[in-house]
Specification:
Strand content: 15-25%
Order of helices and strands: EHEEHEEEHHEHHEHEHEHHEHEHEHEH
Largest sheet: 6 strands, antiparallel
Number of helices: 14
Structural class: alpha/beta
Number of strands: 14
Length: 447
């Protein structure tokens, strides 16, 4: 018998992945998940645990308000394929801090809604590598982390000086973060830490004090990433902050290289790593692949340039002497990656029949102080490309797009950009995928 439950609570399904077990079973976006194997689904952690079996019985409320029971068989390591309106399934734990350097507070209007959301959610830290502060953590959450052994976590530290933490985080609860960081690492939970460096605040002696404090937490504090503060032109009514100078970046690199030598002896790890931006600011070569120790802080921009250069070496080895048909194309990037893409264009230009032009786009959306390619918007690209495009194809990095989508930060899509500039636009993940795309496009030029 079918009953109608129009007002029933549940977790709203935003998308069902095409071809997934749930899709094949007829589950639709707009339905609500109620239970799995007669167990309540509180949040994303419950969902992950309950969907670990290869056979499930899931209870839903359809978008028409009717109850549906669906049985799924999951091949090994495959998820049901459900995507929810909240990444935590349950309501996000919002960030209570008022960090003086918060990038979200510097966002202009016109971006997708999710980019204005500040979370401080331990569940997303464990599952997706989101950085949390621990300043809002409760004892119940701490106990759940221990029970489920949610490790590693990713924690924004910035400073271990209690008074400076209060100033930088903008909350009296900042000292709580240090308390739980010590408890977590002491209880066996591994942590990757982040320090956003703000010249004049947590640099110099304060940085040395922080690194010493983190080192003393023991080997469960796995790594520390140092990231330069990001400043946009939209810092309205916010405390003035300074950018790093080239000389300051060079001095920091010298300091960290010295510390890494010491940490290798005491911890058998370099422990502290610098974001790629510091090497670009100072005009220094990037460390070797070995120096990144497996790239544990890649999402922090620590080692992306080295991976790009290593992949470019491989692309150089496999690039053809010529392409099937002559091709003229444009590659577009941000200011920070100009030197990397210049190397790529030089290597690929050795292919007979291929002409590549590099265009460096200025960030008009956030301001010219923001130079990383991943923060360029569709409107920035239009301004840079219109009237300057060589050939009929434009290549750009997938880092400009939202994960698993074709949307830029300002909600413009790849198709929108293509229509605006009247050219084909292709996003690639690196030198090798770009090489294959070039070969594919060239093979179909006259088709």
């Amino acid at each position: 018998m079918i009953h109608k439950y129009a007002n029933a609570q549940g977790h709203l399904i935003e998308n069902v992945q095409t071809g997934s077990p749930a899709d094949k079973a007829g589950v639709k976006p707009g339905w609500k998940l109620l239970r799995i194997d007669n167990q309540t689904v509180g949040d994303i952690l419950d969902y992950r645990i309950l969907t670990a079996d290869d056979r499930l019985t899931m209870l839903f409320i359809t978008d028409q308000g009717f109850m549906r029971r669906v049985k799924l068989s999951l091949p090994k390591a495959m998820s049901p394929g459900l995507e929810f309106s909240s990444p935590a399934i349950a309501p996000l734990q919002r960030c209570p801090n008022r960090c003086l350097f918060c990038f979200v507070d510097q966002n202009p209007l016109g971006m997708r809604d999710s980019l204005y959301v500040k979370d401080d959610d331990y569940r997303l830290s464990f599952l997706y590598g989101n950085f949390i502060t621990l300043n809002r953590m409760t004892e119940a959450e701490y106990q759940r982390i221990l029970k489920l052994q949610l490790s590693p976590l990713y924690v924004s530290v910035h400073t271990t000086n209690p008074e400076l933490r209060h100033q930088m985080f903008g909350t009296k609860k900042a000292v709580k973060g240090l308390h739980y960081l010590k408890k977590l690492t002491g209880a066996g939970i591994s942590v990757h830490a982040q320090i956003v460096l703000c010249p004049g605040y947590n640099t110099g002696e304060e940085l040395l004090r922080t690194l010493d404090g983190l080192d003393k937490l023991g080997n469960n504090l796995l790594t520390v990433a140092l990231v330069p503060v990001g400043l946009t032109e939209h810092r309205q009514n916010l405390i003035p902050l300074k950018k790093f100078t080239a000389a300051e970046a060079a001095e920091l690199i010298k300091l960290i290289e010295s510390l890494q030598t010491d940490y290798l002896k005491s911890r058998n790890s370099r422990f502290v790593f610098l974001a790629d931006e510091f090497y670009g600011m100072a005009g220094r070569s990037y460390p070797s692949e070995e120096a990144y120790e497996g790239f544990p802080q890649l999402e922090n921009g620590v080692g992306l340039a080295r991976i790009f250069l290593n992949e470019l070496i491989e692309a150089d080895k496999i690039k053809p002497q010529n392409i099937l048909n002559d091709l003229s194309a444009t590659v577009v990037t941000g200011k920070s990656a100009k030197h990397l893409l210049t190397k790529l264009v030089n290597v690929f230009s050795e292919i007979k029949g291929l002409k590549l032009q590099l265009i460096v786009a200025e960030n008009l959306f956030f301001g010219d102080s923001v130079t990383v390619a991943g923060l360029l918007t569709g409107s920035d690209l239009i301004c840079a490309l219109e009237g300057n495009i060589q050939g009929d194809v434009v290549f750009l990095s997938k880092s400009l797009l939202k994960d698993n989508s074709d949307l830029f930060l300002d909600n413009m899509s790849l198709a929108d950009l293509s229509k605006k500039i009247n050219k084909r636009v292709i996003a690639t993940s690196g030198p090798i995928e770009l090489l294959f795309s070039i070969k594919e496009v060239a093979s179909n030029v006259n088709c």
